[in-house]
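Milestone M4 deliverable, item 7.
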Amino acid sequence: MLKMIGVGDNTVDTYTHLGQCFPGGNAVNVAVLAARYGHSAAYLGWVGDDWRGRLVLDSLKKENIDVSRCRVVQNASTAFSEVSLVGGDRVFGKSDPGACNQLNLSDADLDYIKDFDVVHTSVYSYIENQISDLRLASRILSFDFSQKLDRHYMQELLPHIDVALLSLADVSQEDQDALMKWVISQGTSLVLMTRGKEGAWVFDGQLHHKQGVIPVENVVDTLGAGDAFAARFLVEYAMGTSIPHAMKLAAESASENCLHYGAFGHGVPCSGKEGG
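Output delivered:
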């Protein structure tokens, strides 16, 4: 068992077609899912003093996630994102970063982070100006770029990151391999690329590893599948599991995560709460 912490973004996913709201966010989801895979986990982020913030923190506590370093920002809102499902795939609408964009790690926060084996954050966490501090506090630092693949933006961050996570849609194999090679050339040890139904690839600077999607019947919701893959892969990789086997376990976890709504459940009715 290892210790994982998610640092940065949180949100409340508002499923407009269901009238249900679910806690989420990349850093939140990775922490929760790592805990569900048998590890000790924590989350450090900022929420507003509203019902969404209470939903996020209460849900994390129910999952036995340490939220002792989280901050509730007075007179601020908690991030939210509207989500619709089309054929089981997520389609995002209106969103607001809320208190997430005020995140500012203190020296005490950084000292706390030093106790963890894996630190995970993301492009949604507004933490770029503190990435060097976070690097010094991290044994293994992973960063999810999602689909923000601007080379200048990535060049500023990659030298500080151990594992870079990317998402791509339509791209040739040649362009994909070139991008992954370039990421490694910037100082990152490992790059993980997910491409939805096309599967996932990992490049360690020497070998390319591919893992296909593991089919699952009765898909309910794909939101959170990528975070499930990331969480499982990161904890397995950090424990010394071989990359091919870590990817297989991650694919299994991603498929299982498609069988329920929300990244990790805990949905509540949100009718009439959107302005709260």
